[in-house]
Design brief:
Number of strands: 3
Radius of gyration: 21 Å
Helix content: over 70%
Distance between the termini: 14 Å
Largest sheet: 3 strands, mixed
Structural class: mainly alpha
Bound molecules: zinc ion
Number of domains: 1
Order of helices and strands: HHEEEHHHHHH
Number of helices: 8
Length: 236
């Protein structure tokens, strides 16, 4: 009875999808809320996001890594191809606890890259494949099913598995960058003990959005697996 078979899987899918969606919304709200809260508090040394990132880069001998300004909200990132840190409106020139925390995190990525930290190298090596996979995997899978070409459907599935794997590799990269940031801010005396607690809250909230992205990818992967495998069973 294929209808019940399908129905069973759909219910399982919805049951795991709902908590993951709730968690994702919570993580997003939490990072915005925590950032806004600690972006209102000026740090005692009046250090801007730019200052914090520059200090950490220079202390690690990374004088050549540039820091640029980028528009948008929470758009801060480190670009390994250009070897440039881009800091957003609310971070670049702001002397808050949150701005210093976020900027130090991005500097942490530059240090990871410079020191050959394994997970960031692995992540960089699969960026192109991941971009291709996230764009085309679903179409390839659907074409495989439509054309009754099972191998193609599985290729689509495994391509999506690359996307999920990329999200998995992102976790150690992100957690490690935050750990480096907090250590650098503490050792350099940029933030005091109380301020460090605030920066840690902002970075932990940001890390949860990456956990949410991984969980969402895994839920999607599960759904694709049920589609591909049930299609294969029906054909047999
Ligand atoms: Zn990061």
């Amino acid at each position: 009875m294929p209808a019940i078979y399908y129905g069973g899987y759909d219910i399982t899918y919805i049951l795991i999808l709902i908590p993951v969606l709730i968690f994702s919304f919570w993580a997003q709200a939490s990072v915005t809320g925590t950032f806004n809260q600690y972006n209102k508090i000026t740090n005692k040394r009046r250090m801007t996001g730019y200052d914090a990132a520059r200090l950490i880069l220079d202390r690690n001998g990374l004088y050549h890594v540039q820091i640029e300004h980028i528009s948008g909200n929470l758009t801060d990132h480190y670009d390994p191809r250009a070897n440039v840190i881009r800091l957003s409106d609310a971070v670049y020139g702001t002397a808050s606890i949150a701005a210093v925390g976020v900027a130090a995190h991005e500097a942490g990525h530059a240090v990871q890259y410079a020191t050959g930290y394994g997970p960031i190298k692995l992540r960089a090596s699969i960026v192109s494949l991941t971009q291709f996979a996230s764009q085309w995997s679903i179409y390839i899978l659907m074409f495989g099913i439509l054309l009754q070409f099972g191998v193609l459907a599985y290729v689509g599935f495994w391509l999506y598995a690359v996307v999920a794997f990329f999200q998995l590799v992102t976790l150690p990269v992100e957690f490690n960058a935050s750990r480096r940031a907090l250590t650098a801010l503490e050792e350099g005396g940029s933030l005091d003990r109380e301020e460090l607690g605030g920066a840690k809250k902002v970075l932990s909230a940001a890390a949860m959005t990456y956990v949410a992205a991984l969980l969402s990818a895994l839920v999607q992967l599960f759904r694709l697996w049920t589609i591909v495998s049930s299609n294969n069973k029906r054909r047999r």
